[in-house]
Design a protein that fits this description.
The protein has eleven helices and eight strands. It is an alpha+beta fold. It folds into three domains: 111 residues, Acyl-CoA dehydrogenase/oxidase, N-terminal domain (Butyryl-Coa Dehydrogenase, subunit A, domain 1, Orthogonal Bundle); 109 residues, Beta Barrel (Butyryl-CoA Dehydrogenase, subunit A, domain 2); 112 residues, Butyryl-CoA Dehydrogenase, subunit A, domain 3 (Up-down Bundle). 39% of the residues are buried. The structure holds flavin-adenine dinucleotide (FAD). Keywords: FAD, Flavoprotein, Oxidoreductase. Its cofactor is FAD.
Length: 405
């Protein structure tokens, strides 16, 4: 067995090496330096051995443990790493492929994902299926040697930059809605895939709508079982909630207690009892969020998966983000909506306009509360009268009875 003192010393050394590498390669990098520079950074991170730290070595990861991952994240907290565009691949698609992908899929896709050569997106939500994503209507029909995909997805983050995406589609409308879904890997460069940007309230087009028109997909691109796509999707969503909550615990929060108390001090508001009370509330909420995430990471280190408890972290993050928006508008006044500046209140304003999305993306606050009630607290499930009815007999989205073939 390794001596714990030796292990701690080698971890410290590991953390020092990470920091030195980041100082050399990431100091002064803008958080969004453009796609080519982001890819180059990711490739350099991979070559240095810091991408996929806990992922299996046979697929391109480093095969190390959570302590090394944590040491990396601690060092990375002080740098603005341009990794946003890779977040869905690293946080959701890669872990899904590693959990339930075939050997060929893992060998084909994981290494280029870790090197930033291939960007991934996640195509679940549809115009008529968001919270109730099992009502999805995009369909895949087996035609000779391929599945043919037709339909529409919406709110797909980074789809314009993506090379591949995980799609869930209806493959059997004759069974209840959760049972006739299959997950596929989709080549986003296929001529039958059209991606259109959707502008959000930050002024940017972070997400997109996607149209599939007769996209042919080989059977070896099915992820998990045919008609087993619901459990595949749940695997992705569990990774998503943990990665949103725990990821945010490790990255800079522009509208944090620290940033807002500095802003209050600069404006001579720190002695104002109303402002102080709001800041204290925010501090408490931040501490609760950080402590919960510290506990979840310790559990992951001990081999206990957070499962549905990832939803607690995601819900706390959404509440914290909205709360900090309130406090920021109190302290900054009109400046809290002053976009444009890269630093100071401009940076806070940008983060705030992104904030409400946090209560929706990855599952809304209401859905998180339902999951926590059902699966963490063991409360009775929400009644679902449509769980046993064949999909084609349901009235969902734009489905007409005869269209639900
Ligand atoms: C920033 C961001 C990024 C996103 N990225 C992606 C992505 O990459 N891929 C992807 O597939 N999707 C993505 N989404 C979409 C996201 O998953 C959906 O917006 C979300 O699941 C909610 O679905 P909806 O928008 O259709 O709202 P709806 O499901 O129509 O919900 C409307 C309202 O009804 C409430 N509601 C619905 N059902 C219940 C219920 N059973 N009990 C109580 N209240 C309920 C909801 O909480 C909400 O307030 C993203 C969204 C955002 C904001």
């Amino acid at each position: 067995m390794t001596d714990p003192d030796d292990h701690a010393a080698s971890l410290e050394e590991y953390g020092r090496r990470v920091r030195a590498w980041l100082e050399e390669h990431a100091s002064g990098l803008p958080a969004d330096p453009g796609l080519d520079a982001a890819r180059a950074f990711m490739a350099a991170l991979y070559d240095a051995g810091y991408s996929g730290i806990t992922w299996p070595a046979e697929y391109g990861g480093q095969g190390l443990g959570q302590p090394e991952e944590r040491a990396f994240q601690q060092a990375a907290r002080d740098f603005a790493l341009p990794l946003g565009v890779f977040g869905i691949g690293l946080g959701m698609c890669g872990p899904t492929l590693l959990s339930i992908g075939t050997e060929e899929q893992k060998r084909r896709y994981v290494r280029p994902l870790l090197r930033g050569e291939e960007i991934w997106c996640q195509m679940f939500s549809e115009p008529g299926a968001g919270s109730d994503v099992a009502s999805l209507q995009t369909r895949a029909v087996l035609d000779g040697d391929a599945w043919v995909v037709d339909g529409q997805k919406v709110w797909t983050s980074v789809a314009r930059q993506a090379d591949f995406g995980l799609l869930i589609a209806r493959t059997d409308p004759g069974v209840p809605k959760h049972q006739g879904i299959t997950m596929f890997v989709i080549d986003m460069h296929d001529p039958g895939v059209t991606v259109r940007p959707l502008r959000d309230m930050t002024g940017e087009a972070h997400f997109n709508e996607i149209f599939f028109d007769g996209v042919r997909v080989a059977p070896d691109q099915v992820v998990g079982e045919v008609n087993g796509g619901w459990s595949a999707a749940v695997t992705t969503l569990l990774h998503e909630r943990v990665s949103i909550g725990m990821g945010a615990a490790r990255t800079e929060r522009p509208a944090s207690f620290a940033a807002l108390s500095d802003a209050a001090r600069e404006r001579g508001l720190l002695e104002d009892p109303a402002v102080r009370e709001q800041l204290v509330d925010l501090y408490l909420q931040e501490r609760a969020f950080d402590l919960l995430n510290a506990r979840l990471s310790q559990e992951v280190r001990a081999g206990i998966q957070p499962g549905a408890r990832g939803s607690v972290s995601k819900l706390l993050l959404a509440d914290l983000t909205l709360r900090s928006a309130d406090v920021a508008s109190e302290i900054l006044g009109p400046e809290s909506v002053a976009h444009g500046a890269e630093e100071g209140s401009g940076k806070i304003a940008r983060a705030l306009s992104w904030g409400p999305g946090m209560a929706l993306g990855g599952g809304t606050n209401e859905i998180m509360r339902n999951i926590i009630g059902d699966r963490v607290l063991g409360l009775p499930r929400e009644p679902q009268v449509d769980r046993t009815v064949p999909f084609r007999d349901l009235k969902v989205g734009t489905q007409e009875k005869e269209a639900g073939r």
